[in-house]
Design brief:
mainly alpha, MetI-like fold, 10 helices
Length: 257
């Protein structure tokens, strides 16, 4: 048997089902990425906090970094319904499972990114009279996100691939669709090859998108500091102008009297 003996036309015939499966995988992964990014950032800040609270983040990170995606989704889908009486759809269970796992990885990514931001930028913010919260959201966080973006993109690709384990709960993503097609066509080599190609294309597309975001939408550190300096200078000038006007008005009133 050679490659010509396989029915490669099955890929085109079932393209809509395979694309819909990838769309499901991307949808679950995108929602999970948004949630795990927020949770991961909060865990990173908590991890860098006092020891009285940082241990919470340490325990969470160490526990969920070691749990496989398959075990996590089974625990969420079946375990929570038994323990807490809460039932989730397969989509919700997939999102929760991925969010729990990848928030732990993203927490470490953000922690490293925050530590990589030069401390001099924070000191410059203090010298300009900025509050700690202003420095964090205007100077430190944007730089940390830029540093973390390549790794966040890699995490997103990992999420998309991990959805393949969610076939166990019946999520109709690429692998589940492929399994269903194989059961009726008996062409596993052709269909799993198509699934692999779809995953590779998705990975290249995700990597390209994150590179564009990194290069276009994230301001460089110097621009952030420069913007803060210009804003500070503008406020100072406005105060001087207002003070001058007030003094001039007071002087004029004295002459009138």
């Amino acid at each position: 048997m050679n490659l010509a003996d396989f029915d490669w036309g099955l890929i085109w015939e079932n393209r809509e089902a395979l694309i819909n499966g990838m769309w499901t995988a991307l949808s679950v992964s995108t929602v999970a990425l948004l949630i795990s990014t927020v949770v991961g950032l909060l865990l990173a800040v908590l991890r860098n906090g006092p020891k009285s609270v940082s241990w919470i983040a340490v325990v969470y990170i160490n526990v969920f970094r070691g749990v496989p995606a398959l075990v996590s989704v089974i625990w969420v889908y079946f375990g929570l319904s038994l323990v807490l009486g809460i039932s989730f759809s397969v989509f919700q269970a997939g999102v929760i499972a991925l969010s729990m796992l990848y928030s732990a990885f993203l927490a470490e990514i953000f922690r490293s990114a925050l530590a990589a931001v030069p401390h001099g930028h924070t000191e410059a913010g203090w010298a300009l009279g900025m509050r700690t919260s202003q420095i964090f959201f205007s100077v430190t966080l944007p730089q940390a996100i830029k540093i973390a973006l390549p790794n966040i993109g890699s995490m997103y690709i990992g999420m998309v691939k991990d959805t393949s384990t969610f076939t166990v709960i019946g999520l109709l993503e690429v692998v589940r669709v492929t399994q269903n097609l194989v059961a009726t066509t008996f062409q596993p080599f052709v269909l799993y090859t198509a699934a692999a190609i779809i995953y590779v294309i998705a990975a290249f597309a995700i990597d390209l998108i994150f590179r564009l975001i990194e290069g276009v939408y994230v301001r460089p550190p110097k621009a952030l500091i420069g913007r803060a300096i210009r804003a500070r200078q503008r406020r100072t000038i406005e105060k001087i102008v207002a003070s001058t006007k007030a003094n001039s008005l007071a002087t004029a009133q004295l002459f009138v009297k």
